[in-house]
Design a protein that fits this description.
Order of helices and strands: HHHEHEHEEHEHHEEHHHEE
Strand content: 15-25%
CATH class of one domain: Alpha Beta
Shape: globular
Largest sheet: 7 strands, mixed
Strand order of the largest sheet: 3-2-1-4-5-9-6
CATH architecture of one domain: 3-Layer(aba) Sandwich
CATH superfamily of one domain: Vaccinia Virus protein VP39
Radius of gyration: 19 Å
Number of strands: 9
Distance between the termini: 17 Å
């Protein structure tokens, strides 16, 4: 049972209109890296994708919308499930990401897939358009997550199902939390900056479920999924994390060489508890999965 969230304080942050172009620019700037590491992103998100598809059970002939799709591994998997006769829309807030998603769909010979640039807070689609809506690791970056969840309900058909994945508590995801801590210590201010949503913005399960209930969704459930991260070396982890971390990547790119070296030194020390005997790293990780349906 998930209680309805108090709507006070769940609206837009002050000045969000000014933040939107900045946030979109940051994601556009890292789209190339997401394309380069698309296979890794698929593998990293495979457990969450499998669970989300199990929760929503897309069927042949149905329409599916993936929001904040990135390289779209989740939506591409859904496309195979709704054939024949079904359709999947792969959407992201920046065209650079949807171009990658479209290219990957074409490479797989998936003809029931289209890509569109859509803002998950203002989904440019009619009401009652989709049987399933999916959003993996995107809602936490919304400037107004309450508006986004209302939009998800709006575009669902009666009886439609949705599933959302976000990162769980920061202290249980050291593979990324440690990087934010190290960069914050280096630059002397919080990462992400004040007012800017970040990867752990929806780390509280009660708040996440409350957003779903507050949007008018029924049968809301929120659960945890363990998603450990194992890498062959510190360099492999650092290269991928720094390339794919969206707003964090933008900050790292602005640092002088000596500051980056200092961040790396901090992280070498901070990751020692997770080092393996063969030189790799073995991190715990937790994803929150929320599901529900429209009455």
């Amino acid at each position: 049972m998930v209680e309805r969230a108090d709507s006070a304080g769940e609206g837009q942050r002050p000045g969000t209109d000014a933040l939107r172009p900045r946030l979109r620019g940051m994601w556009a700037a890292v789209a190339g890296a997401w394309g380069e590491h698309a296979q890794y992103a698929d593998e990293r998100g495979s457990a969450a994708a499998e669970r989300m598809l199990a929760l929503t059970a897309p069927r042949p002939g149905e329409r599916v919308l993936e929001l904040a799709c990135g390289p779209a591994g989740l939506g591409l998997a859904a496309a195979e499930r709704v054939a024949p006769g079904g359709e999947v829309i792969l959407s992201d807030v920046v065209a650079e990401m949807t171009a990658i998603a479209s290219s990957r769909a074409a490479a797989r010979g998936l003809h029931n897939v289209r890509a569109r640039v859509l803002d998950l807070e203002q989904i440019d689609e009619p009401e009652d358009s989709y049987d399933v809506v999916l959003c993996r690791e995107g809602l936490m970056f919304a400037l107004d997550p309450a508006a986004a969840t209302r939009e998800i309900r709006r575009v669902l058909r009666p009886g439609g199902r949705m599933a959302i994945a976000v990162w769980g508590p920061r202290d249980r995801n050291p593979w990324l939390g440690l990087v934010l801590d190290a960069v914050s210590a280096q630059i002397g201010r919080p990462v992400p900056p004040a007012g800017m949503p970040g990867p752990f913005a929806l780390q509280d399960a009660d708040r996440l479920g409350g957003l779903m209930v507050g949007a008018g969704l029924a049968d809301v459930e929120v659960g945890e999924l363990d998603v450990p991260l194992r890498t062959a070396s510190f360099d492999e982890w650092w290269t991928r994390t720094s390339a794919l971390a969206g707003p964090l990547t933008h900050i790292l790119a602005s640092l002088p060489e000596e500051a980056l070296a200092a961040v790396r030194a901090r992280l070498l020390e901070a990751t020692r508890p997770y080092a393996t005997s063969d030189g790799g790293l073995d991190f715990p990780g937790v994803t929150l999965l929320a599901s529900g349906r429209r009455d």
